[in-house]
Amino acid sequence: MDSTSLSTIEFSLPPELEASAPPEARGLRRDQVRLMVSNYSTDQVRHAHFYKLDKYLDEGDVIVINTSRTRNSALLATRADSGVVELHLSTHFDNELWTVEVRAMDEAGKTKHLEDAQEGETLTLPDAASAMLQGPYVSDCGDNAKPSETLWLAKLKFPYPVDDYLERHGFPIRYNYVKDKWPLDYYQTVYATEIGSAEMPSAGRPFTSRLLKRLEAKGIKIAPLILHTGVSNIDTHEPPYKEFYRVTPETSQMVNEARASCHRIVAVGTTAIRALETLTNGDGKVHAGEGWTCLVITPQRGLRAVNALITGMHEPEASHLAILEALAGRSHIKIAYEEALRKGYLWHEFGDLHLILP
Fold first, then answer.
1. Is the per-residue pLDDT at 259 higher than 60?
2. Pairing between β-strand 84-94 and β-strand 243-247 as defined by DSSP bridges
3. Does this model's pTM top 0.85?
4. In the beta sheet, which residues pair with residue 197?
5. Is 132 within the bounds of a domain?
């Protein structure tokens, strides 16, 4: 994959537009965040709130959701010199093998990628657990895979089942734009089922049970799938790495029938797109299946099944922007983001949403 294939629009994001707390901290419900609605066929941009989502969708449309449940994926760890770092668990491959990121902490509690972590180094975790860094993670996706600048392949040993351990000792991954610590419930979607993600599929956060019922009452179908997300590479914007996915026969059938009837396939987040497009052939037909996806979606590759998207606001030069461009084109995304900046939309997982329609 040529690195130029992931080039994206560039813009300056003012710090005041980074959502530093959940909307609940501002006295709002989850679904009261703002919703920018843009049509890439006309470049029309409208402004609403997320709880009015059903007004912009039609009977027969399908909303594809990622029902992966988020873990308490951050742990405090101690180095041999007694220095304390933050360990972020990314992807669990099998047995004791994981990918992880090690982050240094300053006195203010802010973290950054730890530059001097060493191959073979063992980190001590609470309750007699440990993490041994085996070497920089090298993805087996593609022919030109390079060692990650942020992720390590590590062997983790826990005294009891990992999710029990993380429930007791872990906490949600929190980036520096989030000022305070929030419990895991704030990082969970209302429809999450199967645990396995390092971070929240943030585009789905604003959904409420009430809104889902209203969508279904209008004849809009909800199609679940699984993609267990790893750690976001916010410092280096590395391309995506392989992640586990599952698409059921029921979901593939629902999508195929909707496409055949010329209804919209609305993915909730780039994770849902990645899973669905992994199993979509050149004719746009989706198959059921599960496994590890290496798919990197670029404007050159395009999208085959999905033709609409609910997504958060992505930071400058993030690889996710390439997926938006694959759907709507660079010129439209530039128009929409200029409007979002002008109107003061909030970015990141606790921020506002963007509905992109044909």
1. yes
2. unpaired
3. yes
4. 70
5. yes
Residues 21 and 148 in one domain: no
Residues 138 and 208 in one domain: no
How many domains are contained in the chain? 2
pLDDT digits (tens, 9 = 90+) for 11-61: 999 999 999 999 999 999 999 999 999 999 999 999 999 999 999 999 999
Is residue 154 a part of any domain in this protein? yes
We report the CATH number of the domain holding residue 107 as 2.40.10.240
Q: Are 89 and 162 members of one domain?
A: yes
Contact criterion met (CB below 8 Å) for 65 and 306? no
Question: What is the C-alpha to C-alpha distance for residues 201 and 88, in angstroms, rounded to an integer?
Answer: 16
Residues in the chain: 358
Same domain, 35 and 58: yes
Tokens found for residue 12: 């300056």
Question: Is residue 47 domain-shared with residue 92, that is, in the same domain?
Answer: no
Residue appearing with tokens 């309750």:
127
Domain range for residue 57?
3-70+183-357
* Alpha carbon distance 232, 336 (integer Å): 23
Nearest one of 101, 4, 7, 2 to 316, comparing CA atoms: 7
The answer to whether residues 60 and 118 belong to one domain is no
Cβ atoms of residues 310 and 105 within 8 Å:
no
CB 238 within 8 A of CB 148: yes
Q: Which amino acid is at 113?
A: H
